[in-house]
Structure formats: C-alpha cells, structure tokens
Amino acid sequence: MSIYRIAYLMLLVLLVFITIAVVTGMSFPGDTSVSEWINNIQSPFFDALMPVVSYLGAFPYCIIASLLAGLAFWLFKRRIESLFIVIVPYIGVSISYILKFLIERPRPFEDSLQNSFPSGHTIYTSILLGLIIYFIPQVIKNKTWCNAVQIFAVLYIILMGFSRIYLQYHWLSDVLASLIIATLVIVPAIIIYKYLMKREIECLSFLKSKP
Questions:
Q1: H/E/C letters for each residue in the chain?
Q2: Which pLDDT tens digit goes with each residue over 90-111?
Q3: Which end is more exposed in the chain, N or C (fewer Cβ atoms within 10 Å of the end residue's Cβ)?
C-alpha cells in the first residue's frame, strides 16, 4: 500500500473519530478553548470582514463563484477542468447536508435553521479553491503569478474556517472535519481527472496515427 493510500485512510479514520465524538457528545479537544479565544479577539474590523469572507460559501454567491471560475477555465479551453470546478464542490455540499440531517449538533450560537456539523461553507470553499490550486498552473504559465493565486487560495480556505468559528456558527471540530471531507472528495476527483486526461491524450494520439 502506497503512502498516499495510507494517508487517505488515516484521514478517513480521523473523520470517523471526530464524527463519533460529535455524535456521542464527547468534548473535542480545542472546541471550547478556541471558541473562547476567538471571542476574546472580537473587533469592529473582524466583525465587518468575517461575514464578507463567509459569503463565498453561502447561496447564491457559491453558485456564482463556481460558474465564474468554471467559465474562466472554459474560456482558456480547459473544458474538463471547468466541469470539475462547477460540479465537484457540490458533491461536498451534498455530503454536508446529509451529515447535518443525520447529526443534530447544536451550534455555539443558538440557530434553529441548520445543525452545526459539519461546516458546508468550509467544505464548499475548500473543494472549489483546492481544485483551482491544482488546475491553475495549466492556465497561468507565469510561475510567480501562479504561486500568488495558489497562496491566496490557501489563505482564503484558512480564513473561511476561521470566519465560521468567529461568527459562532461552528466549533473547531466542525471546521476540521470539513477540511478532511473536502480532501477526501478532492483526491478521488483528481484521480478521475487524471484518468480522463490520459484517455483524451490516447484518443488524440490514435487519431493522429491514422492515415
């Protein structure tokens, strides 16, 4: 078994552990302390910034973001990448809604609309930006600009998770589980993408070889 498969299985086991802890009402390490620490750094600047950060994962902004990102890749003639960017994030969102339905975990701030576990905003944003991080070198050839986009995407993912805790919609364990779920979705998506690209190259080679 390769190290990548071992790492994938370890993430899956960790997700199961967090889920069991949430379902059984166990106190997950860091949940309370991190929420209290974030509450202590409340400020007008963060009060204005954090809701804006969270907009990316909220309806209808999430749909607009996926379509715009997909359109950008489509215009650069990256058709398969465009479809993955538009479709795959919503696989994660679907998983989020299923878990929310099955696991009735109270939010840090009382909210009767939805349950806390996991964070759909974090899952969606992590998958969308994670795919962009992987695909962007095919569109931006300048290494400096490409790295800048990738770094910005990573920072935004981190900031999204932070914003959900700051706004008291989620616990730390909700966000950690969401990051794991996003990774578990992205990995097979990339494997499928590589397979499709390989098939496309083989088909093009075969057509070129025909007299």
A1: CCHHHHHHHHHHHHHHHHHHHHHCCCCCCCHHHHHHHHHCCCCHHHHHHHHHHHHHHCCCHHHHHHHHHHHHHHHCCCHHHHHHHHHHHHHHHHHHHHHHHHCCCCCCCCCCCCCCCCCHHHHHHHHHHHHHHHHHHHCCCCHHHHHHHHHHHHHHHHHHHHHHHHCCCCCHHHHHHHHHHHHHHHHHHHHHHHHHHHHHHHHHHHHHHCC
A2: 999 999 999 999 998 888 886 6
A3: C
Task: Please tell me the predicted confidence (pLDDT) of residue 56.
Answer: 92
Count of Cβ atoms closer than 10 Å to residue 43 Cβ: 8
Distances (CA, A) of 110 to 85, 89, 107, 115, 206: 33, 27, 6, 10, 60
Residue 167 and residue 51: Cα distance in Å, rounded? 8
pLDDT tens-digit readout, 77-86: 999 999 999 9
Enter the CATH code of domain 3-209: 1.20.144
d(CA 189, CA 127): 10
pTM of this structure: 0.93
CB-facing half-sphere around the CA of 113: CA atoms within 13 A: 2
d(CA 117, CA 47): 23
Q: Which one, of 171, 160, 74, lies nearest residue 125 by Cα?
A: 160
CA dihedral 166, 152, 194, 120 (to 10 degrees): 20
